[in-house]
Amino acid sequence: MQRIATGKFSSIGWLLLSLVCLGGCDPRYDARPLSPGATLEVWTISATSTPNSRAAVDPTSGAPVYLQSPAVISSSDVQTVALADGPNGTPGLRVTLNAAGAKKLKAVTTPATGQQLAIVVNGQVVVIPTVRSQISTSFEVVSQELDATKLLDDLTRD
Description:
The chain has three helices and eight strands. The protein is α+β, with helices and mostly antiparallel strands. The strands form two sheets. Strands 2-3-1-6-7 form a five-stranded antiparallel beta sheet. The longest helix is centred in the first third of the chain and has 18 residues, at 7-24. Residues 60-143 form the SecDF P1 head subdomain domain.
């Protein structure tokens, strides 16, 4: 026998469903591929210039950094991007890699020794996190200085 809620229970049920969708039905949290022309790269960095590096600027400190060629991860290694909930409600960007990208990032972050990687979106260094553990299939970029919603829009705009 199927039960159908009516009256007050039904109203409360719809209210709860609406509240859940307000927090979890936002389409920006759905994984999406990069738009054609958008780029997302991960680079190892150095504090000094080397023959295979290019100069960049740390967006937080303004200090010069050097991106070591070639990039560890390129756009062809990125499967999808989406918004993610970071600590304290700070929105972040979740990046999921394909098998080839996961293998490359795992090799670079094993063992995790506190090295820093530059996350570059559409040619601009957006954040330089410190690696604290091995990374392979996905990672989240969360920073108070980062506008994750804008990054997602820049990466997935048609």
